[in-house]
Specification:
The structure holds 2 protein chains of 2 kinds. Helix content of chain A is 50%, strand content 14%. In chain A, strands 7, 8, 9, 10, 11 and 13 form a 6-stranded mixed sheet that branches. Chain A has a 5-stranded mixed sheet with strand order 2-1-3-12-6. In chain A, strands 4-5 form a two-stranded antiparallel sheet. By secondary structure, chain B is mainly alpha-helical. Chain B has 11 helices and 2 strands. Classes of the chains: A alpha/beta, B mainly alpha. Chain B: Keywords: Cell membrane, Membrane, Transmembrane, Transmembrane helix, Transport. Chain B: It is found in: Cell membrane.
Chain lengths: 460, 300
């Protein structure tokens, strides 16, 4: 569902990215751009070597050849990075005939190929109608568990060691590797807070006290995207569950694995109680329930509401509409006790190799190629989002907020929750139940009862 | 022999028209329906290479799905609301623009038809703005008459939000049926009205006893068409304006089909919902045909 966000963001991001590129060309960074290109050569060569090593066991030839198809969805992160990395990979493997299947509609367009058992070799799982958990369950993705234990990237570094966030596991197996690393959280306008003397939130207590002050001043404290309730779930409820569980996100992962007991745990009720508290104190904007992300974000930018749960792509997405005196403040979670760590619930998009891929060697080599340290900066620059590759991007031409986000996600004071992909039925049930909870249709126990019913059906 | 040749030629001539159309019909209508029916017997994610045959299980689940019941209720609510709303207003406009001799009838005819030219998506977004609780036109307008600004969340009621989808769909639907009825009314010989005038019949009597019976066939078509397009097409306006929410209270069968098949990976179940839409459409069409049966009046 994030595609709606990303689609809308596409335009804004495209501009931001072209500006970034232009800035890079005009300034001193111009040189580094050239160097980057030059630096690719050795890296590219080692790609071939790595691939060679990889296939050596099966007696494969050193050179990659034949057709190699990459499917990538083009949304909010654009396609600049993909185009460049594919061109680099092609330069390193001239005998390889790389076919790009890309676009905002590619997931739908390529569906028949997947169903017919004729999928692309390599897939970037993002956008509508592609869900990594579902694809793994459908048996469409190659099991990478064993391979990844030893797989190294083009520079000879173990890929798993290079990942800020470890790959998700479905049924104890690894099928896909996170490429993007973004975070959900709560935004506010620092300028507005300074002007009114409101305290910026650090934890649940300060969040509540500031909300009191905000409400007293005649502003609505909290707006969310009720039409797509995964915003409030991902930014508010899930971090609250992790906080309630003593910063252990195992509970959330159990929920992701549709374990009934996890949903019945008191920690979930405690977290839901926080939404109830917001509701009962009248902090939630009544407009929330029916509006989409753009509308809720506009109201936030107009200072009609003080807090909004959203993702780190928000500043980029709304860049055209941000008032000049607006200063984004961001905290990954507000539901932790005073003195406790903040919880960053991440949002990611992953890459995978198709189980029915015809050129698995090339697909693996490509995976080894893109998960290199040099790509961390490039991805951040060209996509406007932090990548999942550990690497210092502080000197890159990436937008400032991307650098800040990257710094945030590597800080010791942050509990970084690996992205949990829920069963889609459970996810929908949680979204519906949360909306029902915010408008007082049900209570916290009602939320649990409803969702448990669906989980029980799914778990069968 | 010659006669037989002519017959054959005639048959060939007819076949030349029917066969291509029939083939297209089979390919683009019959085949998808058969496919949907086939898929509805399977548990299939819509992406997997494997389908599990589950027999009638999807249909059994359908009957016990509370959201499906809401969706059917909402569908028929929209059907009924649109039929009444569109037919009353379209008939009124059609009569007004033909029989009441209003100045600038051509202008109004174009104005009333404009919403029909807009895509449903545009209509949905437009009315989304009208209903917007904070910056919406409707609340802004109402606020003119109140001390406190009005902040009603028109699409966010716990229940009954479906009512709010009626005005946009009616607004968007009037034009076409108005034109249909205008065409029918202008076909009625002027002499009938002249005779009625001489007899002293007023506008209402003329409408009741001349216009209505003579455009009945068009009205019947309109009603059935509204029903079918609503059952099949409400999906768009619902998806754009409410996404079926809040809490599934505005879900219709079409939007629920989309939700299940493409967002929750239950393609087989979605196909079963599709079959349900087809079945309900057929039954309702037959029912309406029966209900609206009336001896056709023809002008001789």
């Amino acid at each position: 569902m994030t595609f709606t966000v990303k689609k809308t963001a596409a335009g804004a991001m495209a501009i931001a990215m072209s500006l970034a590129v232009l800035a890079g060309c005009g300034g001193n960074n111009g040189n580094s751009g050239n160097n980057g290109g030059a630096a690719n050569e050795p890296a590219a060569n080692s790609a071939t070597n790595a691939a060679a090593e990889n296939t050596a066991g099966t007696g494969g030839e050193t050179k990659l050849s034949g057709d190699f198809t990459v499917q990538y969805f083009v949304g909010g992160y654009g396609d600049k990075w993909w185009k460049q990395v594919i061109a680099d990979f092609k330069a390193a493997n001239p005998d390889l005939n790389i076919k790009e299947e890309a676009g905002p509609q590619i997931n739908t367009q390529n569906k028949p190929k997947w169903i017919a058992g004729n999928p692309p070799d390599f897939v970037y799982i993002d956008g509508p109608e592609l869900n990594d958990r579902q694809m793994a369950e459908d048996g469409q993705l190659e099991d990478l568990t064993d391979w990844l234990q030893t797989a190294t990237n083009v520079d000879g570094v173990k890929i798993l060691d290079l990942l800020a966030q470890q790959p998700p596991q479905y049924g104890g197996k690894i099928y896909n590797v996170p490429l993007v690393l973004n975070s959900w959280g709560i935004f506010y306008n620092k300028a507005l807070f300074e002007k009114n003397g409101w305290t910026e939130p650090k934890d649940w207590d300060t969040f509540l006290s500031s909300s009191e002050a905000i409400k007293a001043a005649g502003t609505t404290p909290f707006i969310h995207t009720g039409k797509y309730p995964y915003y409030i779930n991902s930014s508010f409820l899930f971090p609250a569950i992790v906080s309630a569980n003593g910063n252990d996100y195992k509970l959330l992962q159990d929920m992701g694995d549709s374990k009934v007991e996890a949903f019945k745990s008191p920690q979930v009720l405690e977290a839901l109680g926080k939404i109830v508290e917001l509701r009962d104190k009248g902090f939630i904007d009544k407009a929330s329930v029916s509006i989409n992300h753009t509308d809720s974000q506009m109201l936030f930018l107009q200072n009609k509401d003080a807090y909004i749960p959203n993702g780190l792509w928000l500043p980029n997405e709304m860049s055209k509409d941000v008032p000049a005196d607006f200063k984004f403040g961001f905290i990954p979670s507000v539901t932790q006790k005073a003195g406790d760590k903040v919880v960053a619930n991440t949002s990611t998009s992953t890459v995978a190799i198709a189980k029915n891929a015809k050129n698995k060697d090339a697909a693996k080599a490509f995976l080894q190629f893109i998960f290199s340290e040099s790509q961390a900066s490039k991805f951040a620059e060209l996509s406007g989002a932090p990548s999942n590759i550990k690497g210092d991007i502080s000197s890159s031409a990436a937008p400032d907020f991307v650098k800040q986000a990257a710094a945030f996600l590597t800080a010791d004071t942050t509990v970084v929750v690996p992205t949990v992909t829920f069963n889609q039925d459970v996810d929908k049930a949680m979204q519906d139940a949360t909306v029902a909870l915010t408008i007082g249709k049900i209570d916290a126990q009602g939320w649990v009862d409803r969702v448990v019913k669906v989980v029980e059906k799914v778990a069968k | 022999m010659k006669l037989g040749g002519a017959k054959l030629q005639r048959k060939l001539f007819i076949a030349a028209f029917i066969i291509p159309t029939f083939l297209y019909f089979c390919l683009f209508t019959i085949y998808p329906i058969v496919q949907a029916l086939y898929n509805s017997f399977y548990d299939w994610s819509g992406m997997s290479q494997n389908k599990d045959f589950v027999g009638l299980q999807n249909f059994k689940d359908l009957l016990q799905d509370p959201i499906m019941l809401t969706a059917i209720g909402n569908d028929y609510f929209l059907v009924a609301g649109k039929m009444i709303g569109i037919m009353v207003i379209a008939t009124f406009f059609a009569v007004a623009l033909t029989r009441l001799r209003i100045k600038g009838a051509g202008f109004f005819r174009s104005i009333f038809f404009i919403p029909n030219v807009l895509s449903v998506v545009v209509v949905g977004i437009l009315w989304g703005f009208i209903y917007n609780p904070q910056i919406g036109f409707l609340n802004g307008f109402l606020s003119l008459f109140t001390k406190e600004p009005v902040t009603i969340n028109w699409l966010g009621f716990e229940s009954h939000s479906i009512w709010m989808l009626l005005p946009p769909t009616i607004w968007a639907g009037i034009g076409f049926y108005m034109i249909l009825l205008i065409a029918a009314i202008t076909n009625i010989p002027e002499s009938l009205y002249e005779a009625a005038d001489i007899e002293g019949a007023g506008q209402w009597h003329q409408f009741r006893h001349i216009t209505l019976p003579l455009v009945w066939e068009q009205m019947k078509i309109s009603v059935i068409n509204i029903m079918m397009t609503t059952l099949n097409g409400s999906f768009v306006i619902v998806t754009i304006m409410t996404a079926g929410g809040p809490d599934n209270s505005t879900q219709v069968m079409g939007s629920y089909l989309y939700q299940q098949a493409f967002k929750q990976a239950h393609f087989g179940y979605g196909a079963a919902i599709g079959i349900a839409i087809l079945t309900t459409s057929l039954i309702t069409t037959l029912f309406l045909q029966w209900l609206l049966r009336k001896d056709q009046v023809e002008v001789s």
